[in-house]
Amino acid sequence: MLKFHGYFRSSSSYRCRIAFNLKGIEYEFRPVHLKSGVQKGDAFRQLNPQMLVPALETDEGATLIQSLAIIEWLDETYPDPPVMSRDPLTRAQERGFAQVIACEIHPLQNLRVLNYLTGDLGASEDQKNAWLARWLGDGLAACEELLQQQAGDTRFCFGDTPGLADICLVPQVFSSERFDVDISGLSRVREIYENCTALPEFERAHPGNQPDFEA
Amino acid sequence: MLKFHGYFRSSSSYRCRIAFNLKGIEYEFRPVHLKSGVQKGDAFRQLNPQMLVPALETDEGATLIQSLAIIEWLDETYPDPPVMSRDPLTRAQERGFAQVIACEIHPLQNLRVLNYLTGDLGASEDQKNAWLARWLGDGLAACEELLQQQAGDTRFCFGDTPGLADICLVPQVFSSERFDVDISGLSRVREIYENCTALPEFERAHPGNQPDFEA
User: Fold this and answer.
1) Which of A163, A171, B3, B109 shows its CA 20 to 30 Å from the CA of B121?
2) CATH code of the domain containing B64
């Protein structure tokens, strides 16, 4: 069985959980308690030299890292139901949208970066919050514009079934709420978020519903 | 003909240029002078609400954003020669490696983030350099470990032909040199960098060889 190393609050772990659930893939969960620093120990480091979650061990003993790479591998290896379009252009737009979140928003909010800001750079709580408001706010505003550019009023980002873009959007909206970033004006983002979170596959992937959850 | 909007110094534009060259794809170059802020004007913003380069306009008038999405679309649309493995596991490892750079290293060094650090947060030049040394240094050290985990001593990251991982590695090493980050101890990274930059497809993509280059 697939072994999934993750952490309840990690956005990128959350993405993978949604993908597992949408595809109905069972996995063995191996919690990595990021706050304790266990990811820096030799055991985990051999698995992922980056010392970050998620990491996925396949049945053949290979290790995959990086959530988007894991999700695309799942989509290729367990193709039904798909989480990406079979049309190259739409698939490129799904990937582009996912990467706006994964390459431009999320990296600026992750734990090690926030720790560096308040630790090494001595940023105040207000400065940290302004940093988060800037990158999460601007980033999700760009997501809203990208979604508004799409033709129809589909239930999800790219059509009427949830896919890679939704898988990335939901954890990012969750983070914006957690960090008190105001995105009330982003109507399409909010609508799709609500359509997604009404589904049990998204609900079961929520950080609050994980075995390693801590209040 | 494909219209490619980029900037000579942008790492993600550099990635796309290498991919175009490896595949022998001609394109019309539309320079976006990031330092002047032209990317924030209405014309570019309609093309990419994220106000970042690169953006690619297809012959059919669609716009693609995000370098990795663009490169995967090129690989699907112009498959010969490929820049990704046809084996799902190797492809996942190539994507994972590329995303270590695109999702964890590069976002912390881009122009708007460095401007925020020295502007809004009032970081000194030394603090900015320490930030860069931390994220570029740690990130490329993780790349070195990932490459050392690979079995053979191939010429490139994943085999004897250059691909997606090399396309991301070369601009990142170029940035580390530009920012004076010491990576002299990363022997495998340096070896692959040299093997890549000896090829004319990489050389022609170098920022110094672009029509919009400024010293």
Assistant:
1) A171
2) 3.40.30.10
In a domain, B215, yes or no: no
Looking at the structure, tell me whether residues B24 and B76 fall in a common domain: yes
Q: Is the C-alpha dihedral spanning B164, B169, B172, B178 positive or negative?
A: negative
pTM of the model as a whole: 0.97
Lookup result for tokens 């690979």:
B150
Residues B94 and B193 in one domain: yes
Tokens in use for B29?
A: 């170059």
- Is B115 touching A (CB cutoff 8 A)? no
Query: What pLDDT is attached to residue A154?
Result: 95
B61 and B98 both lie in a single domain: no
Write out pLDDT tens, residues A40-67.
998 898 889 888 899 999 999 999 999 9
Partners of residue B69 in chain A, C-beta under 8 Å: 92-93, 95-96, 99
Q: Helix, strand or coil for residue A155?
A: coil
Q: Which of B92, B145, B146 has the CB atom closest to A73's CB atom?
A: B92
Asked if the Cβ–Cβ distance from B50 to A142 is below 8 Å, we say: yes
The boundaries of the domain holding residue A70 are: 2-81
The CA–CA distances, whole Å, from B56 to A128, B30, B62 equal 34, 10, 8
Number of structural domains (chain B) is 2
Within this chain, do residues A169 and A107 fall inside the same structural domain, yes or no?
A: yes
Q: What average pLDDT is seen over chain A?
A: 95
Question: Is A215 part of any domain?
Answer: no
Is-cis flag, bond preceding A207, omega within 30?
no
Q: From the candidates B2, B50, B71, B77, which should be mutated to test the interface with A, based on the most A CB atoms within 10 A?
A: B50
